[in-house]
Every structure is written in structure tokens, then in C-alpha cells.
Amino acid sequence: MSATAPLTMAASAALDEETARAELYGLLAQLYYSAPPPELLAPLRVAVTEAPSAGGLLEEPWQQLVGAARAQGDAAIAAEFERLFGGVGKPEVFLYASHHLSGFLNEKPLARLRSDLDALGLARSEAMPETEDHLAYLCEAMRYLIAGDDMAVCNLATQRDFFAAHLQPWVPALCDGLEAHPAAAFYGALARFTRAFVAVEAQGFDLLE
After folding, report:
1. Distance CA 209, CA 51 (A)
2. What does the pLDDT average to over 105-134?
3. What is the mean pLDDT of residues 118-147?
4. Which partner for 107 in 6, 65, 98, 178 could form a disulfide, CB atoms 3.0-4.6 Å apart?
5. d(Cα 56, Cα 171) in Å, to the nearest integer?
6. What is the pLDDT of residue 89?
7. Residue 98 lies in a domain
8. What is the number of domains present in the chain?
């Protein structure tokens, strides 16, 4: 759902666009879940930064993200992740929907999310330590709803409803806070890209109304 894409397009172009959306959600999931390993950062640093159509809403924030990855080494980015989201006790930046929507962890937003995930046939693996309202898990759920094979749930209507209920209400505010954090260099750039991506997604879903 590119902001610059025409409303009518060839089926192959639409397929390519959906693949790109799924890949971007997958990338966000990895970058927010844990300190990115070298095998994730290496291809990001050599990624193409020019959009097929100049002036797309994602072009500049994507260029900034790739530039931020190139400007820092693997160890510096890992240390930044731990400074912002890890450590012992309270993190400096929370990546959980419940915290941003209710002010507390494990509150009603998480319960609603679990109900919706259950209806979609999705559940958190017991091996995963974070709760389902972690941004990485929500991005991974969106990736599945775009790229999965079960057309009963993997369709635009379900994507729109899940996005509107569980990402759109709080992710822009998270990005504002993360970008303003003095220690966020790479993750500040990631916040700018995430905000722009969420805005493009919201615009695309509005066209379905």
C-alpha cells in the first residue's frame, strides 16, 4: 500500500508490494525484538536507498535508517539496544502496547490482543519471553497476516482491523518518545522510519473503507 502507488495496478505489481510490506514488518520485528546480529545489519547497510518513484513517503526515512546503520558498528548498535530496551529492571523505553495505552504492563489492551490472536488461531510460543503486546510480536503478526497462506485470516480486511486495534493507537507515540531519547541514534532513525511506515499503512487501509 505505497503512498505513491496508483489505485489500479497489475497483479504482479500488487504481489510485489505485498511481499515488500511483509518483509518490512519482518525487519521491524527483528530490529525491535533484540539487538540486531551482524547478519541482519550487513544487508541493511548495503540496501538500495532510492525508491522506484522519487518522493515516496518512505524514501527519506529509509535512507536515514540505512545511513544510521552504516554510521555505527555492530557493537554500538547492540549497546544502544540494551541501553534503551534492556538492562535490569525498568527499561528506558517500553515497547509494549499496554504500557502506552494504559500506563501499566499486562493490562486490558493485552487481554484484548490475546482474544483477537486466539480468534486468528495465533498464540505466543512458550519459548518467547516477552508478552504478545511487544511491538516485535505485533509486527510479526502483521507479517503473517500479509504473507500467510490461510486466506480466511490472511487478507486485507483482517490486516486493517488488527492494525487499527493493536498498532495504530500507540506506535506513533512510541516513535516520538524513542526519537527524542538522547541515546537513540540508530533507533532514533528506526523510529522515524517506523512512524512513516505506520502512516503509509494507515493511509492504505483508509482506501479500503
Report:
1. 27
2. 91
3. 92
4. 98
5. 21
6. 72
7. yes
8. 1
Residues with Cβ within 8 Å of residue 56, at least 6 apart in sequence: 2, 3, 4
- Going by pLDDT thresholds of 50, 70 and 90, the confidence category of residue 2 is very low
Q: Are 133 and 107 in contact (CB under 8 A)?
A: no
Per-residue cell: 175: 516513535
For residues 138 and 78, give the distance between their C-alpha atoms in angstroms, rounded to a whole number: 22
**pLDDT at residue 25, rounded to an integer:** 97
C-alpha–C-alpha distance, residues 15 and 81, integer Å:
33
Q: Each residue of 155-173: b (16+ CB within 10 Å) or e?
A: eeebbbebbeebbbebbbe
- Amino acid at residue number 142: M
Q: Give pTM, 2 decimals.
A: 0.89
CA atoms within 13 A on the CB side of 208: 14
Residue 106 region, left (φ>0) first, then alpha (ψ -120 to 50), else beta?
left
pLDDT tens for 183-202 read 999 999 999 999 999 999 99
Cell triple for residue 39?
A: 547478519
Radius of gyration of the chain (CA): 17
Compute the distance between CA of residue 47 and CA of residue 166 in angstroms, rounded to an integer. 29
Residue with cell string 547478519: 39
Residue 6 lies in a domain: no
